[in-house]
Amino acid sequence: MKIAIVGGGPGGLYFAALMKQLDPSHDITLWERNAASDTFGFGVVFSDETLGGIGNADPVVAEYMSRRFARWSDIDIHFRGEMKTVGGQGFAAMSRKELLELLQRRCIELNVDVRFSTLAPAVEELEANYDLVLAADGVNSQIRAKYADSFKPNLDPRTNKFMWLGTNQVFEAFKFFVKETEWGVMQIHGYPYSDEGSTFIVEMHQDVWHAAGFDETANEVFPPGVSDEKAIAKIREIFAEELDGYEVLSNNSKWINFTTVRNESWRHNNVVLLGDAAHTAHFSIGSGTKLAMEDSLALAACLHEHPTVREALEAYEAERRPVVASTQRAAQASLEWFERIGQYKDQDPTQFAFNLLTRSRRITQENLRLRDPEFADAVDRNFAESQGLSEVAPAMFQPFRIGGLELKNRIIVSPMDMYSAVDGVPGDFHKVHLGSKALGGAGLVMTEMVCVSETGRITPGCTGLYTDGQRDSWKEIVDFVHSRSTAKIGAQLGHSGRKGSTKLMWEGIDQPLESGNWTAVGPSALPYSAENQTPVELDRAGMDAIKAEFVASTLRAEEAGFDLLELHAAHGYLLSSFLSPVSNQRTDEYGGSLENRLRFPLEVFDAVRAAWPAGKPLTVRISATDWIEGGNTSDDSVAIAKAFVEHGAAGLDVSTGQVAKEEKPAFGRSYQTPFADRIRQEVAAPAGAAVIAVGAISSYDDVNSILLAGRADLIALGRTHLYDPQWTLHAAAEQEYQGPGAQWVPQFRAGRRKPPSSRTDAVRPRLSLLKEADIEETTNHLRWTPESVTASVLVK
Fold first, then answer.
1. Percent of the chain with pLDDT over 90
2. What phi and psi values does residue 782 have, to the nearest 5 degrees?
3. Would you say the C-alpha torsion 610, 611, 617, 622 has a positive or negative sign?
4. Computed from CA positions of residues 439, 440, 443, 448, in that sequence, does the dihedral angle turn out positive or negative?
5. What helix, strand, coil percent values describe the chain, rounded to 5?
6. Which of 11, 393, 488, 748 has the smallest count of CB within 10 Å of its CB?
7. What CA–CA distance (Å, rounded) separates 739 from 495?
């Protein structure tokens, strides 16, 4: 093959070397506009997995890298005058300059035509004259811009400012210095890369950056290689204590806003993107160099394995895209956490350290227990103490009080529409459904959305509380839960609004009824989708009538004996549609500004609160973002949450979306938790209100991790409980917990131990000289201490 490479960073160089090893007859030319000696940055970090791949692909490169690595396993988190050390992580880093020098030498050894200080020919010329054109030209890729119609890039510049620096202080571990200054919270990401220095990245929110006066040089244009010395002088002063007399080192160091790069496609004819040109991942989760070298390995392998360039590029993208997407999801969660780091400034140092470690959701409590059991135990103890509890137990099984209601644990069966009522009356199905969940160990069982009127139903199968017969049927279910379990039961009240008069879910979710339909209503005459009915815009009389229906249903909920009431103001139903500018385009006092859009939902809330007993909690479910341009955002959700709390909400059930058919949610594990987290830190916790997290949470490990990090107070699980009605009790068995937080009814008590499965009862012989626990004890904490590395000193 005849190959053109644009960009002489680690990705481009490594790809050239790999291709030459696979076939020395490949004709490879690499252009790099900078000189060979122009190396920007300090250290790069690799995972053991990536190093294993490098070792398999090019033993020469791997052997040299291994001799230059700084290795350690500890993370030190400095916060509020304390340092928390967590072990068992595993890091390897080296100088970026040394890595580039190694790869440059390797390419020259293999007869790659490397042209430094040279601009590449126009991409059209390369495309015409080479079999393959590799665009490894970085985050500001000109080739990507040239063929933007094919690559369809999405560039997401973030709010934080950061500067890449170094120091001659040799850190012993990965260091997070989180410092509260007079201007706000600033943080340092630091790690050793040799026996001579460490990377020292300064990061802060742009508001803090402005307040501290770092914007003094914002309009200056620094030539390549020139650093922002005024800002660096100020950094030396602010972080004098952390530097401890050591120097800050600069190398093309200036303020940057991190840009997340995504592309719908990585290829255009015979042109392919690699590394930062194709994708970026925030430095707090990993190295762009690592990702680029992994790209190179995969691309070289695919080119070697497939007969044509087109097939090879398709295979490369199919293979790498899921890996990159997973990394980018974790990186996105991490960078957003650091953007909001100021909201955690009052956390206890132990909880803060755990929060920081679990920010990307790749590390969880159980994972941490394997890495550093002592710290994991300390997190559990700290959580119990912070809650004023004497018993140390898994966080999910610690009791919680919401308003005047005491819950035995922190697990809620989330409201789930069952579409199985007749004329709004819940029947045997609902009794079995909710009763089984109560017997299954959850602390609180929530009904589906119970509708306040016949025309307020979503479907003909939805339940209601608008007749006494419905109330009496609900009372039977409530009495069963109270008499047969220690669970509490809550009702969720709502009105379908413009999403009403539709088919049962399994007949066509959100599809309009073909017969027997009723008139839908909403804040504006805007249908939920082109297929749905155009709702009648509510006038004052209509709003008053619906408010009265909410009050009447509230009174029936109390008569039925429910312990808690939740107002459904999410998912595009009536109250939610008043809140969202997507569905509310009124021009009177109930539309326009957020204050106006809140007016009717708050009127309903106040009326319900007045009718509901003062000693029983009233919560609200909200959609924290509409996932659509022009809709409510996370900032709006904070204001909405604040308004409901100020009006007396005991808790906020934080969901997202379902407000408009055109939404584009960012699905993923625990994907809605960051919204709950922000509302808890900024609104609920200071006011003494609870926050419930929902959405793609399915493991007890994730539940415990969310609670321990302080991101929510309670966790609601829906589909998880459909899969396993006794999920909470099974989670207790898995964690070997027995206590008041997980009580088996006498009839089920014989099942409280997990049944043995095939071969799990086999007794294994001893085949090791040293106990595994002893090995873990000696290797749990590895510090980078260059003077003793040759002696392999492990510091406990």
1. 85
2. -115, 125
3. negative
4. negative
5. 40, 20, 40
6. 748
7. 39
Are the C-beta atoms of 441 and 728 separated by less than 8 Å? yes
CA distance 236 to 253: 14
Q: Work out the pLDDT band at 776, boundaries 50, 70, 90.
A: very low
Report helix, strand or coil for 195. Answer: coil
Q: What digits encode the pLDDT tens for the residues 310-327?
A: 999 999 999 999 999 999
* pTM given for the model: 0.91
Question: Cα(492)–Cα(569) distance, rounded to whole angstroms?
Answer: 10
Contact 279, 329 (CB under 8 A): no
Nearest to 112 by CA among 191, 29, 188: 29
**Are the C-beta atoms of 32 and 114 separated by less than 8 Å?**
yes
Cβ–Cβ < 8 Å for 403, 715: no
Could you list the active site residues? 573
pLDDT (average), residues 671-696:
95
From CA 305, how far away is CA 303, in angstroms rounded?
A: 6
What phi and psi values does residue 134 have, to the nearest 5 degrees? -100, 115
Per-residue pLDDT band for 54 (boundaries 50, 70, 90) equals confident
The confidence score (pLDDT) of residue 787 equals: 66
C-alpha to C-alpha distances, 432 to 310, 411, 416, 483, nearest whole angstrom? 56, 19, 14, 14
b/e per residue 119-132 (b: at least 16 CB within 10 A): ebeebeebbeebeb
Residue 584: other Cβ atoms inside 10 A: 20
- The residue type found at 653 is D
Helix (H) or strand (E) holding 187: strand 184-192
> In the predicted model, what is the mean pLDDT of residues 210-221?
93
pLDDT of residue 758: 64
Task: Phi first, then psi: give them for residue 138, nearest 5 degrees.
Answer: 85, -175
Picking from 401, 428, 434, 504, the residue whose alpha carbon sits closest to that of residue 462 is: 504
Are the beta carbons of 611 and 555 closer than 8 angstroms? yes
Interval 585-629: pLDDT, tens: 999 999 999 999 999 999 999 999 999 999 999 999 999 999 999
Checking if the pLDDT of 762 tops 80, the result is no
